[in-house]
Amino acid sequence: MPALVGLMAVDAQAAVLAFGLRLVPADRPALAEAAVDHVVRQYPPPGAEIPRDAAVTVWFDFGEGEGGGGAGVREPRDPGPRGGGMRRELGEPAAPSPFTPCR
Questions:
Q1: Which segments constitute the PASTA domain (predicted)?
Q2: How many Å apart are CA 73 and CA 6, to the nearest integer?
Q3: What does the alpha-carbon distance between residue 83 and residue 26 come to, in Å, rounded to a whole number?
Q4: Within a domain: residue 28?
Q5: Gyration radius of the chain over CA positions
Q6: Distance CA 48, CA 100 (A)
């Protein structure tokens, strides 16, 4: 039994077919609707011995309390401004000029 977690649906389908197994999406009515979704859970687990033509159940969304709902792509939070710009503090300005500006 191959490890399917992390694979896209189309890649998971190809992997189970190579082992002579059937892929059954538990949370999608049809596998075509999950073509670009990623597998987040599978049963039986990787490495389990199962007979040919057996069903392998996969999930594309986390269950209640497992990950907050959707399994969509999460971008990391921005750590803040990147380096660059001024790297040192400027000193105090010099004494004012004796010349006054023209108005």
A1: 1-61
A2: 12
A3: 46
A4: yes
A5: 29
A6: 87
pTM higher than 0.85 for the full model?
A: no
Domain that holds residue 13: 9-59
- Residue 19 is assigned to a structural domain of this protein: yes
Q: CA-CA distances (angstroms) from residue 37 to 8, 10, 32, 33, 58?
A: 5, 9, 10, 9, 11
Examine residue 41 and state whether it is found in any structural domain, yes or no. yes
Mean pLDDT on 77-101: 68
Residue 92 in domain: no
Cis previous bond, 98, omega within 30: no
| Domain count within the chain | 1
Position 5 pLDDT exceeds 70: yes
Whether the Cβ atoms of residue 71 and residue 38 lie closer than 8 Å to each other: yes
